[in-house]
Amino acid sequence: MSFMTFGDKSLDLSRPHVMGILNVTPDSFSDGGSYSSLDDALAKTERMILDGASFIDVGGESTRPGALPVSVEEEMDRVLPVVEAIKARFDTIISVDTSTPSVMSESARLGAGLINDVRALEREGALQAAANTGLPVCLMHMRGSPSTMQDNVVYDSVVEEVSAYLMARVAVCEAVGIGRDKLILDPGVGFGKSLPHNLALLNHTVDFRRKGFPVLIGLSRKTMIGEVLNVPVDERLYGTMGANAATYSQGARLFRVHDVKPHVDMLELMYRIEREV
Ligand code: 7PJ
């Protein structure tokens, strides 16, 4: 079936869904102060839900190219109050963008519905922590680590290598009891990939879909859009939408984006045309 359960909510993954990005890293807020950061996070959350987001993806670790690691305590302090506050106020699915076992466990306890791990549960203890939550997991491919991932990126065949990696992680998940019905795959646009790699992966979205898992794509405002269009980050919406539309046509149904409303509208049209209803 095409339904997947995220905590207390079930979604039909034969239709598209938008995941709104909520960064709770200090540099993503104007003043960095914790009081207004929470208010700001809640205001952004409300906006994204009104605009039609199915998920709010809360992330407390910057994984931008060149970003440095954050301590467990710091990540917990950033993420958990936001998860708790969103859960108390809104009826949405909270996704936690984390690789940290204790953030996974505690977020789940506070009502998160999805673990979104750019390291595909490779960090020590993450596999077991994720399995213990019973939640679905988005497994993303990354080559290297954020601090070095864009240095010297070489693949023989990027599509085959990313696909083989993700299927190996699926096997590892299954071995600890995270069933296939709880897994989402993501090729990891921009995570240790040059522009040609990103383009090849996107043009082979259907290959990932054919493995039998829902596919999530996260390319919103990323460097690859800037490289193609030669535009700064605040002018990447149209390019982002075009690239997401291309992957929808190849079966991607989950879209992690900053700009929720334009994507909800665009994807609704794509879906309605495909269904002719
Ligand atoms: C992704 C993500 C992505 C998933 C980030 C950024 C970098 N999670 N978290 N897929 N990217 N699943 O948004 O520029 O592509 S953080």
From TrEMBL:
Enzyme Commission designation: 2.5.1.15
Domain of life: Bacteria
Cofactor: Mg(2+)
GO MF terms held by the record: dihydropteroate synthase activity
Pathway listed: Cofactor biosynthesis; tetrahydrofolate biosynthesis; 7,8-dihydrofolate from 2-amino-4-hydroxy-6-hydroxymethyl-7,8-dihydropteridine diphosphate and 4-aminobenzoate: step 1/2
Keywords: Folate biosynthesis, Magnesium, Metal-binding, Transferase
Residues annotated as domain Pterin-binding: 16-268
InterPro entries in UniProt: DHP_synth-like, DHP_synth_dom, Dihydropteroate_synth-like_sf, Pterin-binding_dom
Role noted for this protein: Catalyzes the condensation of para-aminobenzoate (pABA) with 6-hydroxymethyl-7,8-dihydropterin diphosphate (DHPt-PP) to form 7,8-dihydropteroate (H2Pte), the immediate precursor of folate derivatives.
The protein's name: Dihydropteroate synthase
Organism of derivation: Marinomonas arenicola
Encoding gene per record: folP
